[in-house]
Design goal:
The structure holds two protein chains of two kinds.
Chain A (H helix, E strand, L loop, with lengths): L1 E5 L2 E3 L21 E3 L1 H17 L2 E8 L4 H10 L3 E6 L8 H12 L6 E5 L10 H8 L4 E11 L2 E7 L4 E8 L2 E5 L11 H7 L4 E5 L8 E7 L8 E2 L4 H15 L5
Parallel strand pairs in A: 1-4, 1-6, 4-5, 5-11, 6-10, 7-10
Antiparallel strand pairs in A: 2-3, 7-8, 8-9
Helix pairs in contact in A: 2-5, 3-4
Chain B lengths: L1 E4 L2 E2 L2 E2 L2 H13 L4 E6 L5 H7 L6 E5 L9 H15 L3 E5 L2 H14 L3 E5 L1 E5 L2 E8 L4 E7 L5 E5 L18 E3 L12 E2 L3 E2 L12 E5 L9 H10 L3 E4 L1 H5 L20 E5 L5 H7 L4 E6 L6 H4 L2 E4 L2 H12 L2
Parallel strand pairs in B: 1-4, 1-6, 4-5, 5-12, 6-11, 7-11, 15-16, 15-17, 17-18, 18-19
Antiparallel strand pairs in B: 2-3, 8-9, 9-10
Classes of the chains: A alpha/beta, B alpha/beta.
């Protein structure tokens, strides 16, 4: 089975945001990056499917030169080769532009199955995988917690809200967006890291950019919804003060 | 005209549909609002309920393409409905179902889709939609670009269902015909099910102590349990903790777990990703203990302590001793 997994490079979880001059995007030079977490689960799932059914796993990523970092990491974890759609403009692009760039680069490969995370931890559109399916004319399902392949048929467990699930069958080739927690992640071994250095990363130029579908007119630190009373002091004093306030002010404990 | 796409499952209206109607009424500025309900044949109660809204009319979409739900069927049927109705803007609740089909629908029509909006602002005459970015660390005002209709989805809880204006009398309900080629629907869904009977009903808990990534290791869970016991609280968690198997899934709070509204919600080492906040921001009193002063959880907290939970929790246990 020929499997593609689309991964995105996003700011690290403990990154402190800084804004650019026009306050419409982040200061990228101050940013540290890592693999988008739901995409890491999609990568793991694709490696498990390959181990079960054979074939190859191809990592696909759209973004500036820096995304080579997460591509190498995916190759070190066991992906076979990579396609990098390289373009500086894709760093802040909307989901239509990213899905458009990926679909153009992926079309000729005729993948049996395309996996990606359900959304990214940067812009959080939760759109790219679904738009990719539409652009490639493939059936899709989202927020997937289990994947079973039987010949040319796919059966997947989709998460609904509030603890409900649903099984869905569809023909291959198809596109799935993967929910975090579907599996337990593996980490790269030293052997994997060495092997990754020899694996192919095919660079593809992004085609003509599609017209942007959304424009960020202002980016800012969120306004507080509530006035938070921050309790300062050494742990023992702060804890005492919090307990006092919960008893006497909020009256939520006895 | 503004089109609201309501959501029902097994004939029962998703309450978030009313929140989207409230958003539409705020955005309308005199423009008519139409509510579309797909899969209405088995949901007459839901369409009658929607007819109470202060809108122009309710249109229902029936047929095998929309019952049961599939993204292929919904995309084809809703595109046909939108082509007939010609709305300027299409609003939807940001449910898992919307997330499954709306990007496909917008891509097929080649129109803008703004997801997970929490508020509507004006940006030089055009509406701007406010949405969280970077895991809630930043907020963006976003203006859709390109030709109409623009699609916008609203975060659950961003607007209040009880603020949707009701009309003096019920508005007309009419079915609009859509024909969809059955062979274009490729997904075959089975009946929804629950994994296990929910043994723990967190929605009824008066007090909840909830743990997130800041708890670091499974071996630290008993510390949180001690605090829960001392507060006569239930223990709950954010998604990553349940994904790791440190607590059972039934103790998960958030969009994929339970929605809770206790008197006290004490968040230990929870950063406050939006998927978690939607499940707990209805709590009366929220306490956040986190080492990161910029964590989004502090935006909804009434009381906060910025610090190391491994120092603060033992201090709290000491302070709670009679």
């Amino acid at each position: 089975m020929k499997i593609a997994v689309c991964i995105k490079q996003v700011p690290t979880r403990d990154w402190q945001p800084r804004l650019n001059e026009s306050k419409t995007w982040i200061r990228e030079q101050d940013t540290t990056y890592e693999m988008n977490e739901p995409d890491a689960y999609a990568l793991e799932e694709s490696l498990r499917l390959k181990e079960k059914h054979g074939g190859e796993v191809v990592v696909c990523s759209a973004g500036p030169a820096r995304v080579a970092q997460v591509i190498r990491e995916a190759l070190a974890r066991g992906a076979d080769r990579a396609i990098h759609v390289e373009d500086d403009g894709l760093a802040s692009a909307d989901a239509f532009a990213v899905a458009g760039a990926l679909s153009a680069a992926m079309k000729e490969e005729q993948f049996d199955l395309i996996l990606t995370g359900l959304q990214s931890d940067d812009q959080g559109f939760a759109q790219t995988g679904v738009i990719l399916a539409e652009r490639l004319d493939r059936p899709h399902a989202t927020i997937i917690m289990e994947v079973a392949v039987d010949g040319s048929t796919l059966r997947v467990k989709r998460e609904l809200e509030g603890g409900w699930f649903q099984w869905i069958a569809m023909p291959l080739p198809a596109v799935l967006t993967i929910q975090s927690g579907i599996n337990q992640l593996r980490y790269a071994t030293l052997k994997g890291i060495m092997a990754a250095k020899k694996k192919e990363i095919r660079k593809v130029a992004a085609g003509a950019a599609s017209a942007p579908r959304q424009k960020i007119v202002s980016l800012y630190v969120p306004e507080k919804q509530k006035k938070t009373q921050l309790i300062a002091g050494a742990p023992a004093e702060a804890a005492k003060e919090l307990v006092r306030k919960l008893r006497e002010e909020a009256r939520v404990i006895e | 005209m503004i089109l609201v796409i309501a959501e029902q499952r097994a004939g029962k209206l998703n309450r978030a549909s009313w929140e989207t109607i409230a958003a539409a009424q705020q955005l309308a500025a005199g423009r008519p609002i139409v509510i579309a309900l797909p899969g209405a044949a088995g949901a007459q109660g839901a369409s009658a309920e929607l007819a109470a809204a202060d809108v122009k009319e309710v249109v229902t979409i029936d047929g095998p393409a929309v019952e049961p739900y599939t993204p292929d069927g919904y995309t084809a049927a809703l595109k046909a409905a939108i082509d007939q109705l010609s709305p300027e803007i299409v609003l939807l609740p940001h449910t898992y179902q919307t997330r499954d089909f709306a990007p496909k629908l917008a891509a097929r029509m080649d129109r803008a889709l703004i997801t997970d909006a929490t508020a509507i602002k004006s940006a030089g005459g055009d509406p701007a939609f406010v949405r969280p970015m970077f895991q809630g660390k930043l907020t963006a005002d976003v203006v859709p670009q390109g030709p109409s209709p623009h699609f916008v989805t609203f975060q659950i809880g961003a607007f209040r269902a009880d603020q949707a204006a009701r009309g003096a009398s019920a508005v007309p309900v009419r079915a609009i015909p859509v024909s969809v080629d059955a062979s274009s629907v490729r997904q075959k869904p089975e009946a929804p099910f629950q994994e296990a009977k929910q043994a723990v009903d967190l929605s009824q808990a008066e007090r909840i102590v909830s743990v997130g990534r800041g708890i670091k290791e499974q071996s630290n869970i008993p510390l949180a349990q001690q605090l829960a016991d001392a507060l006569h609280a239930e223990l709950a968690a954010s998604r990553p903790i349940c994904d790791s198997g440190w607590l059972p899934m039934e103790r998960q709070v958030g969009s994929s777990g339970q929605t809770v509204a206790p008197k006290l919600y004490l968040a230990l080492g929870i950063s406050g990703a939006i998927q978690h906040l939607v499940g707990m921001k209805g709590a009366n009193t929220i306490v956040a203990i986190n080492k990161d002063a910029d964590a989004p959880i502090f935006e909804v907290a009434d009381y906060g302590i910025v610090g190391d939970l491994f120092e603060i929790v033992p201090a709290l246990l000491a302070a709670l001793k009679p």
